[in-house]
Fold this protein.
Amino acid sequence: MTVRTCAAAAAILASAGCGASSTEPTSTDTKNLPPVNARATSMKAGFGTMERLAETAKREGQLNVIGLPREWVGFGEIIDTFADKYGLKVVELEPGASSRRELDAAAALKPDVFDLTMDVAVSGADRFAPYKVQGWQDVPDDVKEPSGAWYAAYGGYMSIGYDPRAVKPPASFADLVNPGYRVALDGDPLRSAAAFDGVMAASMRSGVPEPEQGVALFGKLKQAGRLTDPSRANTIVAWDHLNAARSAHGPETWKVTIPRDAPLGGYHVQAINEAAPHPAAARLWQEFLFSDEGQNLLQKGFARPARGEAMLMKGTLDTEQAAKLPKTPGPPVLMTIPQADAAKAYLKREWTKSVG
């Protein structure tokens, strides 16, 4: 994967996604439908219609998800809507699991589906069952595996959330070293992907991550006694959907900005467990997430839906909610996997020495 600032990568943000919209089969003539195959690589090949897919999934009776906190991009409402719509029980395994933990725990916990950061998905692609949702063509080519092993559902920008009553709007990450800012990351960057990406956003120079710059900035904050935890911070570096959700609850007490010089973006991708105990339910879940309804629910959680651009063109995107997303400075920059690996190695050597 390479650094992208093209229209395809921009799909994360404005109202992401590109390509032609998909259509659902309209024939109800069962004579022309394929035999039901719960492990098929597409709805058309294994079921023929959404109705047959839903019926097959309902007979399985259950869907096991993992690593989906209910407050994360509105997954609580998404899970409840899916369960009610299709009459399925949804078992929520380890909601707080990291992407790596999702894969490590799969043999024991038996999830049907995964929600993963892209680097973890790339490394674990041989453990997934390829499946192309009906909205496949709407998902940017740069953020999907060609066979359908994994594909981005939503994305966002790393952002700075701040209390406007306490500090001035920061124009850049460099402003955070100024007096008054009490700054928090979303976890420990040696363990949390979100915190690591926060350090990387602070490290961006002309679209290229320079991890030593990010470590140096947070080192200065630590030395000044102004690097703290979120409960005591007036400024939080986190994904924009988290800061935007907080702002929605108190717009006068919390604002969000995406610095112009550091438009670091990221995607979360979906995959079906090759050993899914409920294979039809897993495929139905993916179809729901990538449907207009599912994508709009993700956007309601302040994520940026992968099919957003196509939906905007069709008139099916919730434009009122889209207008509530934090304003972006332009197309996102995505780190390459080699860049991310090099940065992780640098932080492993230097973070504790410089920041603690």
Notes: The chain has two domains: 17-155+267-322, 157-264+330-354.
